[in-house]
Amino acid sequence: MVTIAVVRHSGAAAHIEFDAADAASALRRCEYSLDAASWVPVAAADGVIDSLREKFVLDLTGLAPRRAPAGDSRRRPAPTTRASPR
Questions:
Q1: What does the pLDDT look like over 29-50, one tens digit per residue?
Q2: Where are the domains of the chain?
Q3: Which of 1, 14, 56, 73 gives 20 to 30 Å between its CA and that of 81?
């Protein structure tokens, strides 16, 4: 399970803090994908992904603004994240 804790964005940058947990097995990796691009590894906040629950901090820069259809005021969605015990 991934739980988003903090999301801050300013211009072309975003700061995202989230927790990932698995009830049965220690997590082994975490990755994110932005706009359906390739998956990118994310390090745990403590430097090692080895527990049932981990905290992650993701700082993204150089983001292009999302263009919404006319009349749609939605902003760019947060990156897709996945954490895996494998």
A1: 999 998 888 999 999 999 999 9
A2: 2-63+76-84
A3: 73
